User: What shape does this take?
Amino acid sequence: MRHSTRPRRLKVGSTIMLIAPASFPKHSNVGLKLGIQLLRKMGFNIVLGKSVKESWVHWHLSGPDDLRARDLLDGFRRSDIDAVWCALGGAGSLRLLNLIDYDLIKENPKVIVGFSDVTTIQNAVYSVTGLPSLQGPMLSITPRASDEVGLARFRRDLELTVRILMGETIELRQPDDGPFTKVINHGKARGRIIGGNLTLFTLLQGTPYRPDPSGGVLFLEDVNEEAYRVDNYLTVLRLSKVLSIINAIIYGEFPESGRGGPSPSIEEVITEDTRDTTKAPSFIGYPCCHGGDEHGLNTYPVPIGIETEVNADDAVVTMLEPLTE
Assistant: This one.
């Protein structure tokens, strides 16, 4: 899918709707409150969706499927809302895909910000409507207020995200405190980014919501996975021809589980599986989503559905067009 429309550009005074389309962010979560404060200090108005402000907790979810779907769609339906920002991932977004009014979203284009479980919504919306979105920091995972290093990192990533939402085209270079990146296949290539969380993106394969990978750039990341499971997911992507028709691959951080045993590292599995399947320029260690250290996650933004250039040798991702207009 090529994007048929762009989300509206944010500006100072824009209103952001905060929703929880998957798991429930606890009201006592200090990080959530701090994240809201940071966005307000940047000049944005924040509106809380029912999935955030009301205790509809159902199983591990922020509420029943229909409530979470309505919350998402209200963000697009309401004329006073300029962007939809997810507070948390977790699990449950897959259950919403058949409940989403994609025509409504296409007629009222706005950006969706989030990562992890939100991968399914972002890729489904892009696949059906052509609307780009942004993998970026979610407010319920803001570092502790006492962690100055973590807060500085989160502010940096949040400010970079907002610059993209306000219409800038950015060259996304590794931050000084980012992870050590490694080249898998050398070179440069262009294409529109699809993907996100490896588990969720793999689960989209074989559904009507799988984005077309041909000629694109694939971004993949995950956490709490074993090497053999990562190998299984990449094998599915190989068998479904995703890895062989993609122009470039960006792998995020894949924290090792720390479990012992005679098994390869996740990095070894990714490197071997990739080289065995494609010569597409690729690297591992992009600082987005679930990676990080004792100071919290690295949440560098990743624009889904936007034309980019990937320089695998230098681990640089350059936006070739704006996300918003």
Notes: The first strand starts at residue 15 and ends at 19.
